[in-house]
Specification:
Elements (H helix, E strand, L loop, with lengths): L1 H70 L2 H8 L3 H15 L3 E6 L4 E4 L13 H10 L2 E6 L5 E10 L3 E10 L2 H11 L2 E6 L7 E2 L12 E7 L4 E8 H52 L14 H28 L9 H8 L8 E8 L2 H8 L1 H15 L8 E6 L2 E7 L3 H15 L3 E3 L2 E3 L3 E8 L6 H18 L3 E3 L8 H17 L2 E10 L4 E13 L3 E3 L1 H11 L2 H21 L5 E5 L2 H4 L4 H11 L7 E6 H6 L1 H14 L2 E7 L6 H5 L5 E4 L1 H5 L5 H17 L2 E4 L5 H9 L4 E2 L8 E2 H16 L1
Parallel strand pairs: 15-16, 18-20, 20-21, 21-22, 22-23, 23-24, 24-25
Antiparallel strand pairs: 1-2, 1-5, 3-4, 4-5, 6-7, 6-9, 8-9, 10-12, 10-15, 11-12, 13-14, 17-18, 17-25, 17-26, 18-19
The structure holds ligand C2E and magnesium ion (MG) (2 copies).
Length: about 750
């Protein structure tokens, strides 16, 4: 838009200037040619008038000469002397014809006619122009323009005839008519018109006369003749103007052609100036949009070409700088892999609804290796791991190093099964040992998987969920864990949680709910499990899965567990005092199990509240045992020595073998809910549960089925020898105050 107008502006200025200059030239030519025409007209008129006068004089002299010849004729003189009229008449007729005089008259010195060629005159008549005669007598000859009685105009010349004295006058008349005027016009180049001054009408005219004053088409000059006559000489102005008009016409044509050529030329020139500018501005727009790839068209050597050259240098400069910046911003220097930023950005390419997975990989014991062998070895190990992982990077996906020993894969379009297969491939690839300086390092890794869109819709959430899953995988030594197994924990919620938890503990927002455990053989409630509940004043009730993992991570669990144990034991004392024969189970976390004061604290509680040790059961997850098996075992032994029961929670999710468990002083095995839920649907699961029950019994362990929801499951468990069942199918966790009422109801129901 602006470039077109620039182009037009250039052309308009050029052509405008040319038109202006040409207009001035034209005006100048016009005004000066008008002046020249004026001067030329006057000059031509003056010359014409002079020529006209010369002609008149010349005519007169010719006539005089002719008259002289006549008067020298002896026979003629004799005829006059003898008054021989016929001879005189015949001589003058011949003579007149010779000199083209229309009228010839011979007059005696007395003023009476002797003879005439005109029959209207008779001998003895007085001479018609006595004034001419008088002038001739005074001057020896005379001439003048005279009108005959019939109105015809003549130039009359009167000369004497000498023998040797003057014996007569001969008058010769030349008809001054249109033909005469025409001849005069032919010689002078002017229009010739004879008028009588002060009278209208033309006596003779060369044609097309305009006698009125102020006539613009003709310039005229008057030449006075005698006898009140005047010759009006006229020059048509157009005639003088014609060559100038022609000149101006040609000039106009030339100007028009020049303007046209110039306009075309300047449009082309403007185009040549503007096109490279257009190219430049298009390139600038591309650069503004971040496209540095396209080089500029080759430039000419002029200033615009130089500008284009500098611009091109700028483009390549920016391109290479941007490349460097992008590299710095997006590439991990150590491994040359994309970094976390690049990874988060690449996620944007996942097609919504298309599915996908984020897999976080973390090297086990990396910190240990780093500390033991030094950072240089650590760096080389990371490079080696990157080298092992790089070939696995899927097409359309990405492998990145997030930080430290944490890598991540982005899989496009992957579902749970595909992600699991991919994860197995990663584990298999990492199984190849790495050799650094001859040292063989066996690498093991944990993997956390979050699926799009199930576990989150944005890259940051998915990464966080995958990292939480990774933590869970590490806890359980499971190798691989899915985010869906670890529960949703939005990060922003977690941050405010830690402050909240401390406040909640003081404010009494935590309570325990108790879920009954049913002995399948006797149909009696033998125990309850204490489950933590948080009634948040603003957020309502928050499930333990939402805040316990966070409390474990931050260590705050060390403040929660004592409260849980104290509350549970105090409640056990209340029920014990009320004569209810039920045990109370409480859950422990990994950190609790590593707490060296745990045993002493539990013993104090039992003593303070006078609760028999067998009324308390502590539930421990497999992973809690795996983090530091030796320590765990020592503490478990200490607890077992107190006489309290120990239970393995969520059994089957991790990888602890029954053989290992056998070495621990545990009493109870709680089969994870996931096995129970599938029991009536999957014969394979049923077989696992069945053999687990059998093996547990062989090892002297009580088997508890968690998450029993249906009567079918209950029946199946009873038939297959499971000892205890717990689940919504029996009762949901309830407040302590509700338990006694519920127990009474339950007893009434089962005996009925
Ligand atoms: P858990 O120890 O395995 O507890 C059993 C969980 O299963 C409870 O969830 C319970 O409400 C739920 N449950 C019981 N029967 C059914 C059923 O039929 N169907 C289904 N779908 N779920 C059933 P809850 O109370 O949300 O606790 C979740 C987990 O939080 C517990 O799993 C335990 O690991 C942890 N937790 C709870 N209280 C404490 C605590 O005081 N200290 C520690 N360290 N962890 C606790
Ligand atoms: Mg439990
Ligand atoms: Mg459990």
């Amino acid at each position: 838009m602006s470039s077109t107008s620039l182009r037009h502006r250039i052309a308009i200025v050029f052509v405008g200037l040319l038109v202006l200059v040409m207009g001035l030239v034209l005006a100048l030519v016009h005004s000066s040619s008008a002046r020249i025409v004026e001067r030329e007209t006057q000059r031509e008129l003056a010359v014409g008038a002079k020529v006209f006068q010369r002609l008149l004089e010349q005519n007169q002299r010719q006539l005089e000469t002719a008259a002289g010849v006549l008067s020298a004729d002896f026979a003629f003189r004799e005829a006059i002397a003898t008054q021989d009229q016929p001879t005189v008449r015949s001589v003058i007729r011949n003579h007149g014809q010779r000199i083209h005089a229309q009228v010839m008259m011979v007059t005696g010195t007395d003023g009476r006619m002797i003879a005439a060629t005109q029959s209207t005159f008779a001998a003895g008549d007085p001479f018609p122009f006595p004034d001419l005669l008088a002038a001739a007598e005074a001057a020896g000859r005379s001439a003048g323009f005279r009108q005959m009685r019939n109105g015809q105009l003549f130039q009359v010349v009167l000369v004497p005839i000498m023998a040797p004295t003057r014996i007569a006058w001969v008058a010769m008349g030349f008809h001054v008519d249109d033909r005469w005027a025409h001849e005069m016009a032919g010689v002078t180049g002017l229009g010739v018109h004879i008028v009588r001054v002060g009278m209208p009408g033309l006596l003779a005219s060369s044609g097309a006369a305009a006698t009125d004053a102020g006539d613009a088409r003709n310039a005229s000059v008057g030449v006075p003749l005698d006898g009140g006559l005047q010759a009006v000489l006229q020059l048509p102005v157009a005639q003088v103007q014609a060559p100038f008009n022609q000149l101006q016409g040609r000039l106009l044509g030339v100007i028009a052609a020049a303007v046209l050529v110039f306009a075309l030329g300047s449009v082309m020139l403007a185009g040549r100036i503007v096109r490279p500018l257009n190219d430049l501005s298009a390139a600038a727009r591309r650069i503004a949009l971040g496209d540095y790839a396209q080089p500029l068209p080759p430039a000419q050597g002029d200033e615009i070409g130089q500008l284009a050259g500098s611009f091109e240098q700028m483009r390549t400069g920016i391109a290479s700088r941007e490349e460097r910046i992008v590299r710095l911003a997006y590439v991990d220097e150590l491994t040359d892999l994309p970094n976390r930023t690049r990874f988060l950005e690449a996620f944007g390419r996942l097609t919504p609804g298309g599915g996908g997975a984020v897999i976080v990989v973390n090297i086990d014991r990396f910190a240990l290796i780093n500390n033991a062998l030094g950072h240089l070895v650590g760096d080389r190990l990371l490079r080696a791991v990157a080298g092992q992982l790089r070939p696995l990077a899927p097409a359309g996906g990405m492998l990145a190093r997030l930080w430290g020993d944490q890598f991540a894969f982005l899989l496009e379009g992957a579902d749970l099964d595909a992600a699991r297969r991919f994860a197995d491939g990663v584990l298999a690839a990492l199984r190849d040992p790495v050799t650094l300086d001859g040292q063989r390092l066996d690498i093991e890794a944990g993997l956390g998987i979050a699926l799009y869109p199930d576990d989150g819709l944005d890259a940051a959430t998915l990464l966080r969920r995958a990292e939480l899953a990774l933590a869970a995988a590490k806890r359980r030594h499971a190798g691989v864990a899915f985010a869906s197994e670890t529960g949703a924990e939005p990060a922003h919620e977690q941050l405010s949680l830690i402050g909240d938890m401390r406040r909640a503990l003081l404010a009494g927002e935590f309570t325990l709910a108790y879920q009954p455990k049913l002995a399948l053989a006797g149909g009696r409630i033998v125990a309850v499990e204490a489950l933590l509940r948080w009634q948040h004043p603003e957020r309502g009730s928050i499930a333990p899965a939402r805040f316990i993992p966070f409390a474990e991570q931050t260590g705050f669990i060390r403040e929660i567990t004592p409260w849980v144990l104290e509350t549970a034991v105090r409640q056990a004392a209340v029920w014990h005092a009320a004569g209810l024969d039920i045990a109370v189970s409480a859950n422990l976390s990994t950190l609790d199990l590593l707490d060296p004061h745990l045993g002493r604290r539990v013993r104090n509680l039992l003593e303070t509240h006078a609760v028999p040790a067998r009324r308390l059961c502590l539930e421990i997850t497999e992973s809690a045992l795996m983090d530091d098996p030796a320590q765990a075992q020592a503490h478990l032994d200490e607890l077992a020595a107190l006489g309290i029961k120990l239970s393995i929670d969520d059994y089957g999710v991790g990888q602890a073998s029954l053989a290992y468990l056998k070495s621990l002083p545990v009493d109870e095995l709680k089969l994870d809910r996931s096995f129970i839920t599938a029991i009536t649907e999957s014969p394979r699961n049923a077989a696992i549960v069945e053999s687990t029950i059998m093996l547990s019994h062989a090892l002297g362990l009580t088997v508890v089925a968690e998450g029993v929801e249906t009567q079918a499951e209950l029946r199946w468990l009873r038939e297959h020898g499971c000892d205890i069942a717990q689940g919504y199918g029996i009762a949901r966790p309830m407040a302590a105050t509700q338990l006694q009422g519920w127990l009474a109801d339950f007893a009434a129901r089962t005996t009925a």
